[in-house]
Amino acid sequence: MIIALHGGLPKEMLYGLGGGFIVAVLFFIFIHYRVYKSNYYKDEFVYFSSEKKVVFYIGFLIVNFFVAYILLFVFMLLIMAIANLFLK
C-alpha cells in the first residue's frame, strides 16, 4: 500500500480508519454501559460530592480516550491489512 500524493487516500486506509473509529466508539459505549450498570456506581458513587464526581468522571474519560486511541490504531492497521488482502 502506497499513499499517492495526487489521488488521495487508498481504499484500504479509508476502510481502516472507518473500522477503527467504529471499534473505538463501540468500546466507549460498552465501557460506559458497564460502569453505569455496576454495583459501585449504584451503591457508592451516587453519594459522592459533585466535585468528586466531576474529578472521577474526567479521569475516567482521560483513561478511556487513551485506550480508545490505542484501539483505533490497532484495529485500523488490522482492518487495513485485511482489506489489502481482499482488494487486490
Shape descriptor = elongated
The major β-sheet equals:
none
Number of strands: 0
Share in helix: over 70%
Q: Output the number of helix runs.
A: 3
Q: Tell me the distance between the termini.
A: 10 Å
Q: Secondary-structure element order, as H and E?
A: HHH
Average the pLDDT over all residues and give the rounded result: 86
Strand content: under 5%
Poorly predicted runs are: none
Radius of gyration: 19 Å
**From the helix content, strand content and strand pairing, which structural class follows?**
mainly alpha
Q: How many domains is the backbone divided into?
A: 1
Please explain how this structure is put together.
Helix 1 packs antiparallel against helix 3. The chain starts with 10 loop residues before the first helix and ends with a helix. The protein has one domain (11-87). The chain has helices spanning 11-36, 39-43, 50-87. The radius of gyration is 19 Å and the shape is elongated. The mean pLDDT is 86. The longest helix is centred in the last third of the chain and has 38 residues, at 50-87. The chain has three helices and no strands. Helices cover 78% and strands 0% of the residues. The chain is mainly alpha-helical and 88 residues long.
